[in-house]
Specification:
The chain has a six-stranded mixed sheet, with helices on both faces. The relative contact order is 0.12. It has 366 residues and is α+β, with helices and mostly antiparallel strands. The protein is elongated. It contains 16 helices and six strands.
Length: 366
């Protein structure tokens, strides 16, 4: 994630920045923001109370990201925050990482664990106002968003499509069912044409959202089905960069696609969010993906990466470019369309598919 240079010169500045770094205003949370030079390199968050073993991977992650110092912020009552703040501070200091500031925030006031002066850090706490902070204004100006709470972030990936989207999906599926059956000398040619058109649709969609546009229902449904073909999905994955368009596109499709079609788009949303350092959004997108398809391999891979606190660069640097995908996978073959054909055979959109099946909870830092 390209985070703007927010000047954090006081505890109030740190508290104003944190909601924009995690994507929502935290409650009952422990947040660690790692800094390398003038740049916030990464931000992690845990629900409180947090088990000490859940923090054990933190130092290794910060070292991999060349973090030189951190800000620790706990949200909630002292009985909940203080043990977690003490544990993480002890781990960080033992790992040779400087704790620049450690805070607890509750009810519009903060307390500093780094300060023992009653003059600047009174026992009753110091009032602060994130809404009027210049840091919040700067963050908003750079396009960062802080939703009211974690529930708001979760709702931002929940399904919101209605009858019009289901009808569009039915039309697109009917068209695709008319494709010739696999077999015969032209089967691979047909697959190559389908894949080429799918790759082009992915690129056009990214460009459309980059320009502030949005797919209509039929184009969204068609792209969602294109992603059932791994080569098309991997093209979308390989294209992910720091542009907002990737999160916007895959979040939109995650919310609009039929539950049985959503796993690839939700996994791409997770990859795009993780690429930007938005681990909370990534985790929620993976919940959607795995609710739709518990065995979806891309979602499982990303869930493991989040659970093990891998920095996004470790997987991103191993992701082939579109040209390398062509070299590795070779010419399109009819077998590539097998997952799409299976989806067309078993999935008939209708009113009963308006709600996703029950989700699986994913415990990961965010």
């Amino acid at each position: 994630m390209t985070i703007p240079k927010l000047v954090l010169s006081s505890p109030a500045d740190i508290l104003a920045a944190v909601p924009y770094l995690v994507g929502f205003h935290p409650t009952d949370s422990l947040v660690v923001a790692g800094v390398a030079g003038p740049q916030v390199r990464l931000t992690t968050r845990w629900d409180l109370p947090v088990a000490s073993e859940d923090l054990d991977l933190l130092v290794a992650l910060l070292r991999r990201e060349a973090v030189t110092e951190v800000f620790v912020v706990g949200y909630g009552p002292g009985a909940l925050v203080t043990p977690a703040a003490d544990t993480v501070t002890r781990l960080l200091r033992a790992g040779g990482i400087r704790v620049a500031e450690s805070l607890r925030a509750e009810g519009g006031r903060y307390w500093s664990y780094s300060c023992d002066s009653a003059t600047c850090c009174p026992a009753e706490g110091t009032p602060y106002d994130t809404e009027r902070s210049h840091v919040a204004a700067e963050a908003v100006m750079h396009g960062l968003v802080a939703l009211p709470d974690r529930g708001s972030l979760r709702r931002s990936v929940q399904r919101c499509a209605g009858a019009a989207m289901r009808q569009a999906t039915s039309r697109v599926m009917a068209d695709l069912r008319a494709m010739p059956e696999p077999g015969g000398p032209v089967a691979d040619e047909l697959a190559a044409r389908f894949v080429a058109e799918g790759l082009a649709r992915v690129r056009r969609a990214v460009g459309l959202y980059d320009a502030g546009g949005r797919l209509d229902d039929e184009d969204a449904a068609r792209l969602g089905l294109d992603l059932a073909v791994v080569r098309v999905r991997d093209e979308a994955w390989a294209l992910i960069d720091d542009r907002d368009a990737h999160v916007a596109l895959w979040r939109d499709l995650t919310r609009r696609l039929e539950p049985g079609h959503v796993a690839p788009a939700a996994s791409l949303l997770a990859a795009a969010a993780w690429h930007r350092g938005e681990c909370a959004l990534a985790g929620m997108a993976l919940e959607r993906a795995l609710a739709a398809d518990p065995g979806y391999s891309m979602a499982i891979l990303l869930r493991q990466a989040l659970a093990h606190m891998m920095p996004p660069a470790m997987l991103r640097d191993r992701m082939p470019t579109p040209a390398e995908l062509d070299d590795e996978m070779g010419p399109a073959r009819a077998i590539w369309l097998a997952p799409l054909r299976a989806l067309l055979t078993r999935d008939v959109p209708g009113p009963a598919s308006a709600s996703a099946p029950g989700g699986r909870q994913i415990r990961s830092p965010s």
